[in-house]
């Protein structure tokens, strides 16, 4: 009888959750009176990520003789989607503020997340579909997205805003393909995760010792979508956080996150923490030789960065993932190529870059 009650409770909970899960990024934008469009791009290796766009002011409030502004691209965090940027609504949400100011706002989505689980010939049920790391997102998805936006808007440059993983992939791209620095007007990286030697997150502190030598976990477990592991956490977390008296954006965040991705993305961050290096994914000796023609993965050379203006970094002392010690290491290497903006609030943390009001 007890088991039956649990099953019924979960069924009712799933019905409630699914009603909200049916909203995509465009639905959430349209709810607030802003226009929205969606596009599908094709990467060189066959993935079909979705882009969303809100091209300017709320409907019915267009400005006369408005000067055209360059597009703005927002890229999300690990196991997230474009949804995370619109959950705060028009009063506190950065993309709404930008759109109200006349900017052409675009939202990217990394391969494998909720909006990017299509491929020309691979099925998301196949292991091969999930055989990607941060490197493919940075060096294939991101430049494909940038080129698509510039072509669609007939612009030469765009503004870039990256949060957490969105900052990681931007730095990877600028190191590996520095010519993309000339396609960036300004760049703004919130909670930047580049070096991760001094991470204080309890989850990382627990997982790093379990990883063992680089790539051991991946070789043993193979590749798979993270949604299989974390879906129930999202449902139970939503139920807990949606109970009175909690009144934050966390319930909505848990409805849309985790938005799926490959386990290799997480392993690569663990490798950053384990080795203290900002480098390509380490597949182990044999696979490294096949992929890189070297026994070790290449390190991303920060000296290659060639943006016209300094990269704006935004960080907080209470961020357990993008720590001030690791940011200091980054500062020591790139110096005047970055401007360093500290959030002067004691309790401000990694999640607050998205959810603060």
Automatic annotation (TrEMBL):
- Is the keyword Mitochondrion assigned to this protein? no
Q: Does the keyword Ribonucleoprotein apply?
A: no
Ranges for domain Partial AB-hydrolase lipase = 28-89
Report the GO molecular function annotations: hydrolase activity, acting on ester bonds
The record ties this protein, via SUPFAM superfamilies, to: alpha/beta-Hydrolases
Origin superkingdom: Eukaryota
Q: Which InterPro entries match?
A: AB_hydrolase_fold, AB_hydrolase_lipase, Lipase_euk
| GO BP annotations listed | lipid catabolic process
Keywords from the named record: Glycoprotein, Hydrolase, Lipid degradation, Lipid metabolism, Signal
PANTHER family from the UniProt entry: LYSOSOMAL ACID LIPASE-RELATED
Per the record, the similarity remark reads: Belongs to the AB hydrolase superfamily. Lipase family.
Name of the featured protein: Partial AB-hydrolase lipase domain-containing protein
Recorded source organism is: Musca domestica (House fly)
